[in-house]
Amino acid sequence: MSGTVNVTVDGKQVAVPGGLNLIEAARYAGKSVPHYCYHPRLSVAGNCRICLVEIQGQGKLQIACNTRVTEGMSYFTDNERVRKAREGIMELLLINHPLDCPICDQAGECKLQEYAVEHGSGITRYAFEKVRKPKNVSWGDKVVFDSERCILCTRCVRFLDEVAGTPEVGLDMRGEKCTLVVKGDGKLTSPYQMNVIDLCPVGALTSRDFRFKSRVWFMHFTDTVCTSCARGCNVTVGSRGDRVLRMVPRANPDVNHNWMCDHGRLHYAFVNDETRLTVPRVAGKGAPYAAAIARAKAILEGARGQGILAVASPFMTNEELFAMKELLDRLGVEDRFFLKPMGEGDDLLVHPEKCPNARGAALLGFAEAAAEWPSKEYGALLHFAPHEGADLPEEALKRAKRRILFSLKEREADVCFPLTTWIEKDGTVVSAGDRLQRLTKGITFEPTLVTERTVLDRLHASLDASHRPPDTAAQALARLAAALPAFAGVTWTRIGPLGMKLEATGAPA
Amino acid sequence: MTYVLGKLLHIVIVAGAVLPGVGAVMVWAERRVSAFMQDRLGPNRVGPAGLLQPVADLLKFIFKEDVIPGHVNKTLYVLAPVMSLVPALVAFCVVPYARGMAIADVNVGILLVFAISSIAVYGISIGGWASNNKYSLLGGVRASAQMISYELALGLSVVPVFLIVGDLNMEAIVRWQKENGWLVFWLFPAWVIFLISSYAETNRLPFDLPEAETELVAGYHTEYSSMKFALFFLAEYIHMTTASALSVALFFGGYELPFVTLPQGVWGTVLSGLIFFAKMSFFLFLFIWVRWTLPRFRYDQLMKLGWKILLPASLAIIVLTAGGVALRETLK
Amino acid sequence: MKTRIVKRPQLSVGERIYFATVVKGLLLTIKHFFGVCRDLFDWKNKKTAITMQYPEERWDFKDNFRGAPALVMDQFGREKCVACQMCEFVCPPKAITIWPAEFATKDNNVEKFPDRFEIDMLRCIYCGFCEEACPEEAIFLVKEAELVHTDKKDFIHDKGKLYEMGGIREDRILKWQHK
Ligand code: SF4
Ligand code: SF4
Ligand code: SF4
Ligand code: SF4
Ligand code: FES
Fold first, then answer.
1. pTM of the model as a whole
2. Which of A218, A275, B117, C158 has its CA 20 to 30 A from that of B175?
């Protein structure tokens, strides 16, 4: 595993790190070797045989996934012999494969389809009745298994064993009867079980939640970050018609590898909730933004003498928090808090902080709310209600004469602005380990909705005509980076799709 | 008094009902006949055999929005269709369409027709000018040049008739033919010139250059719509009717039949009227028939035909006829 | 470049006098005129008239005629469409909208069906792509071509209407029979 070795891939010489297998080494030569059972984060099983390559000097074709590079090795990923072998493997895999593509959720992102087109011969010589195996088998309330579509690559088996630590699926029987079974009552228990759906190269494992909701080619994909806990797993959100339909993990070696937890994956219903607030409410009645902002301005100005309580939410992005900070600075507000929802964590991914940006709120000068609220009376409350977790206690709410709330659902307040969710705006959050990551806008829930940063900025501008708010999230971030040393040198592009560590905070990784 | 009232009633019936009625039927016939000649059926849905189609067309014309474009000379623009229609109606007044049934049985009958129908050209040229549109203007200019050119040939082609009959009165001409046979047998070339010129005078194909859709959009009535357009349209058909009626009266024995003596009294009048209309219908049909057979002339061809062929030819016929008549008189 | 000079054909005297040709033309048109007149009395064996009297007479569309798209059932009266949405995807003007659903019971191999299936005939361009794309042979362009409604809503053909137009076409695979 040390140093580099020189290999020749399809006649092209490349130097690759030692210890790589032939699939990974071929990437250095710009070649891709098809593979089903091999996964870079799982142990090698070597059972699908689609990765066969010809190594010079060896009579038989070898599987690329289970062979490591050696100095001076030369192999072919695309010569006549290899192509013929792949054709054979494809024909074999498809012998008993059902004609399910029209009803199979994997269609469109199915490796079997892709390789059949790319490497298959397009014909089958098998003219007999196909083997029938159990279909539409429920593996609990999250995963549905179809044995006919399974190519027995054992990725799912290995994942649950090696990554999730719950070895609950295994192979049963042999030959054409070979199928997968789940231990015990046949239901999966792992809180990471839905990763097998993404891992499965075919449509044998499908998501109960996403099942038949949309074909993948209709969907719009957005690379963003999961906000269900402070880990900030990188995800790709699939949406259609401005509604979120599914979330799948996006590989990020520094955060979540290729996985995410089931809770985060299924936690998006609040985005699509049609009863969400979409227009501001003033004294319980719908009002245009201009009117609501004017009313909020009047409240804040009227309460200046009596003190204002500001409670932010750790679901806000840094840019929103910064806009709030600017507004509070302008109003001279001292009491700035945020509420942090807490829960259980585990040692794989799940973080006990059940919000994406508690660290960011702290960095921006908001204090974590203590159990005891200051017993002061306030003229006004400016409060961003958290999406979930404990909200401000009633006693704290009562302390303020007038209330300006930002909330997902309608709440009793003098002015209630609608919140937008994480997939409706651009911004940054500080995830666990002081990692700055980007959120990307994927849907427009309702064209009338205005994001919180804009509301705060417009409110600010109404109080102070000299306030020139930034336009885009990138501009807001630049302003924030210029103002706070913890964010020094940060730019939107520098963060990149995979995020970056905030070195200046000095936190351990 | 009764005479005046009777005449008025006569005028109202002829100008208000018979001629527009003939025009309406002609619209229908034009479409049906042209369809038949092109192996189609034409309008056959509104009323029996589509006969009520003109009514539908009329309703459409009436209910269409009456657009007066902003750039036109409004007074003349509105006046033009009327100026085109009225002479067409008036010219018919001297035609004896049944025995003793001309509205005005004047001695200079045929001259009156020519005098009045040449006013009609004003309707067209003014319409073209008032529209303030290059296509309309060209159409109007073409119309006036064409009318002036062919009026000569038209007028000269009937002079032999007068030479032979020795009278300008239409009734007298009809009577002469009853006694001596149809004039067309005597003056066939003159009739041909008369026919050709009348096609040019009525702006019908192959001489419809003032409209010439393929060149001038719609010529002088490009800017006209709704009822105003309908008036132009009607004027053209009434002109055709008058031209056909003249053809019948001057060359084809008028309301009389050869070898048959019509009874006296009311029945005779009715019968003579029917005969006249039957003969006229043939000429109207001929108008349509020719239109759907012949292509349009080029303008230079039109002018050449008028000035270089028809005019000399009709002059020659006059001279020959005059000689003949002189001979006849000397021999007598 | 080689130029070729084309001489204007010289007209003979007869042609220039023009009368003979006029008469010839008149005879031709009148021949057609009387031909159609004759046809009017014996419309069944018409010889000259070529038009079709539309509402009474209609085209006998050929089998590959591309009329309105419709859904078909198999010989057992079962829905063939499995809501794969290929047609929805391929449809150029986006006339098709499908709401897929899962069968409540697991008594067959199909799993999926269109809960709602709508074709907006005001958008459809009768291209036949849907028929071509359908992997289940469930949608066909039938001979229905005269869609006249007074309400725009009626142009949105729902599942009931689509099956009514489509009728039955034999299926060879019968996927739903396998349990
Ligand atoms: S697993 Fe792939 S090939 Fe098999 S039915 Fe599904 S989409 Fe088609
Ligand atoms: S279910 Fe999918 S991942 Fe599991 S063995 Fe079968 S094909 Fe592989
Ligand atoms: S025929 Fe073409 S336009 Fe019409 S529904 Fe089918 S695919 Fe769409
Ligand atoms: S392509 Fe065929 S099976 Fe698929 S949704 Fe359309 S009609 Fe149904
Ligand atoms: S990827 Fe190598 S055998 Fe499956």
1. 0.74
2. B117
